[in-house]
Amino acid sequence: MRTLLIALAAASALPSIAAAQTMGAAESPALAEAEAALDSDTIAWDFVEGITTEVGPRMPGTEAEARARAWAMAWLRAEGFANIANEPFMMQTWERGAETARVTAPFVQPMHIAALGNSGTTGPDGLTAEVVYFPSYADLVAAPAGSLVGKIAFISHDMRPTQDGSGYGFAGPARWTGPALAASKGAVATVIRSIGTDNQRVSHTGNTTFPEGTTPIPAGALSNPDADNLERVFARAEGRPVTMELLMTPRFIGETESGNVVGEITGRDASLPPVLLACHLDSWDNGTGAFDDGAGCGIIAAAAKHVATYGQPLRTIRVLFAGAEETGLWGSRAYAAAHADEPVFVGLESDFGADRVWRLESNFTGSDPDLYRQLAQAVARFGVGPSTNVATGGADLNLVREQGGPLIDLQQDGTRYFDLHHTENDTLDKIDPVQLRQNVAVWTAVVGVLANHRPAIVQGE
Amino acid sequence: MRTLLIALAAASALPSIAAAQTMGAAESPALAEAEAALDSDTIAWDFVEGITTEVGPRMPGTEAEARARAWAMAWLRAEGFANIANEPFMMQTWERGAETARVTAPFVQPMHIAALGNSGTTGPDGLTAEVVYFPSYADLVAAPAGSLVGKIAFISHDMRPTQDGSGYGFAGPARWTGPALAASKGAVATVIRSIGTDNQRVSHTGNTTFPEGTTPIPAGALSNPDADNLERVFARAEGRPVTMELLMTPRFIGETESGNVVGEITGRDASLPPVLLACHLDSWDNGTGAFDDGAGCGIIAAAAKHVATYGQPLRTIRVLFAGAEETGLWGSRAYAAAHADEPVFVGLESDFGADRVWRLESNFTGSDPDLYRQLAQAVARFGVGPSTNVATGGADLNLVREQGGPLIDLQQDGTRYFDLHHTENDTLDKIDPVQLRQNVAVWTAVVGVLANHRPAIVQGE
Q1: How do the pLDDT tens digits run along chain A, 461 residues long?
Q2: Prediction pTM value
Q3: B427 with B30: CB under 8 angstroms?
């Protein structure tokens, strides 16, 4: 609680109290709209219910993602957005194949596995090898060079839930770079404990990375219950070798087309840089992309619409439904390249599920305290606190980062996000409509302020 | 609360208060052992941890089930049981094949499906047909004869959790007889909403039954999130036909061997009929059989051992780890046939997970009130209440039912049982060690009374 009180004290010590207070009246229609959205928004739900029902999984670069783009463009049209476009780009596309895993000695039993994005293949005949158990990523780091020749590395580095999602940074390296590290020590394959906080029998997929020029080894994630079981197999093996049979046949299918879908609420002054609201339209292939990131697209579109309800905003509000985020930010990079010379007023992304927003962060909190405080006052009523953390922006905001532009992060409660992340369980039923509407309300309040703010944002160096 | 108070009042109105009270002293070592088990039993956990780790899934009639028998016999030997035996029997064995499901119109997306036991096959090429939606089993019953010719029936009859598991009786028919009923009206296949109370992306398998002489149609269970999604597909189809592509290739592999494993704590008086404690050793092929029913075998064996700890019991305690329960009570029937002429003093089974026992039922509550009250007094300290419900015994107690013998049901809390039942999620991590030990304590108390009770149980007509 102390941190929060200090932050509030800092906010109230900011110079322009009077300015902020005079905003009170002007804010009214915007905040009334935001408060109404808290109780009755249906737009965000309609989007995420629709895309999960009528499209479902939409893997980057596939025909399913193309169907998602067509669906989203039709939806934006029906909702009255202007300047709707698909901005195509090419990408290297990875597809899942068969995937099975089985402990073969000293005991025999099947295990649930999912290949990680960019995983290599075992070939159609699979492979069988002895497994070397690393309780943590640090243990793998400490393994001598060459010590894994012919072996399967098992990295069991586990993850605990945190409200701010910081556990991902702690456990994530096991997935992000563990397979490449194991390969560099001679491993023929890597299995990791899922980077997830649930105990469901579903594997958490997600990308892993191999250095340029190296051959990817097969790399997969066991579900947490399977990783628990494999740890017990080691305990009960009492020194006997533990072997595993793996079959994983993912492949790169070459260059295919993806695309970014954009739409706008046009502002009164076309000469002013737009407010850019981002999410990503693609999803992993196992769930239906409800939490990640159908909800985010629904939230940003709903907020843009609600702001427009009480009058045409000063600035254009652009929504970016980015393509191909999951397998390497292809859409974010393409968008940044295509629009490099178009200034953005401020960028915000929703891509952390559908649970409540609890904290407001920006990268101009100190340099433009008036605006920050105006935003903080607008969202406090929805249970969102201020913070001196510096916003870094969502994955699809490469454009704004490359421009060195203003960013806002509306941090969502991530306590259960990694129960669902990149699994079959990322489905509509996991979305709490009440918390989804709180997101829409907060976004409506924030976007309402931003889209009607004429001065450029003062940024620190 | 009123029901409980009435039941307690009825119990205290029973005639032999004095007799029960004189049992107080004699009970002491038994109850001290039971109370110690509540805090420190390790036997039940050792069994279920061991079999889920060293064997895992153990489908009836398969080599995995044979490994489970060998494992269980070695375990019983190590625990000091006597007269350990495998009693083999032959059975018709069904095995899962490939299984995929995909909505193909008016939208396209994959769905999670698992074939039901006894399901027919689609053949290797699968089948595609229009889906007819039945919100409940009653709706399917009401469908006219011949109305499903060439169609896939979708029965979405859903289930809610109940402490006593009674929701299974409400929702179960959709699985048990729904596919045969749909087939009788011409359906080429049936998909049901999983008979389960979770919203995880796992399908609940389990047996379905087709009448003698009919050809089984393909029958599978969608996970609850998938069934939700299919309902929404129907809502958004707005009258357009919904079609689904199914591939399921399970098959009967003919007659194979299964077996019942038995072991004993031998009593002082071999002329007295034994106390029979049952569980089943087999499991479905998707989980590791922790809740269903590794825990049950661990509980009954632990109780038998604890009773023996404070002195050789008067009567023999026999544990029956039945084979092949899941696909048709093959072990129960074989055991009943093989031992038909051997009287059993009383039969009890543990086969409803590992959550706490909350109610004591028997089929002699009214006819032998002294014994019933002695048992009720022994378990009240563990939070178990009396009941006038008539016990019917577990699935593997066909022998006792056919003998018209005494039965006790130690009812477990089933609130979350059907979250896990017959799914991949039936794994060790779901077992709460504290509640598992409460089971052992209650069973130790009850078996301690029974195995030292000389008079035959007075049974009503």
Answers
A1: 333 333 333 444 333 333 444 444 345 688 999 999 999 999 999 999 999 999 999 999 999 999 999 999 999 999 999 999 999 999 999 999 999 999 999 999 999 999 999 999 999 999 999 999 999 999 999 999 999 999 999 999 999 999 999 999 999 999 999 999 999 999 999 999 999 999 999 999 999 999 998 999 999 999 999 999 999 999 999 999 999 999 999 999 999 999 999 999 999 999 999 999 999 999 999 999 999 999 999 999 999 999 999 899 999 999 999 999 999 999 999 999 999 999 999 999 999 999 999 999 999 999 999 999 999 999 999 999 999 999 999 999 999 999 999 999 999 999 999 999 999 999 999 999 999 999 999 999 999 999 999 999 999 86
A2: 0.93
A3: no
Neighbours of B33 (CB within 10 A): 22
**φ/ψ (deg, to 5) at B110:** -75, 155
Q: How many CB atoms lie within 10 A of CB A337?
A: 12
B429–A225 CB contact, under 8 Å: yes
Inter-chain residue contact A53 with B202, CB threshold 8 Å: no
Nearest CB among A200, A229, A232 relative to B200 is that of A200
For A229, name the nearest residue in chain B, comparing CA atoms only: B53
Tell me whether residues B107 and A50 touch, CB distance under 8 A. Answer: no
Chain B residues near residue A112 by CB distance under 8 angstroms: 424
ipTM: 0.92
B347/B326 Cα distance (integer angstroms)? 20
Q: How far is CA A157 from CA A139, B118, B263, in A?
A: 9, 41, 41
Choose from A52, A53, A420 for mutation: most chain B CBs within 10 A: A53
Contact assignment for A109 to B225 by CB distance below 8 Å: no
Determine whether the interchain pair A53/B110 forms a contact, defined as Cβ–Cβ distance below 8 Å.
Answer: no
CA distance A158 to chain B (A): 15
The Cα B448–Cα A453 span in angstroms is 79
In degrees rounded to 5, what are phi and psi of residue A93? -110, 130
Pairwise CA distance, residues B344 & A175, whole Å: 57
Residue B88 tokens read as 């083999």
B52, B109, B425 ranked by CB distance to A201: nearest: B425
Chain B interface, Cβ < 8 Å to A: 49-50, 52-57, 64, 67, 107-110, 112, 199-202, 224-225, 228-229, 232-233, 236, 287-288, 423-425, 427-430
Instruction: Give the pair of three-digit tokens for residue B62.
Output: 């398969």
DSSP string, A119-178: -----TT-EEEEEEEESSHHHHHHSPTTTTTT-EEEE-------TTSTHHHHHTHHHHTH
Task: Compute the distance between CA of residue B386 and CA of residue B374 in angstroms, rounded to an integer.
Answer: 11
| Full strand arrangement of the beta sheet holding A99-105 | A109-111, A99-105, A243-248, A127-134, A152-155, A189-193, A219-222, A113-115
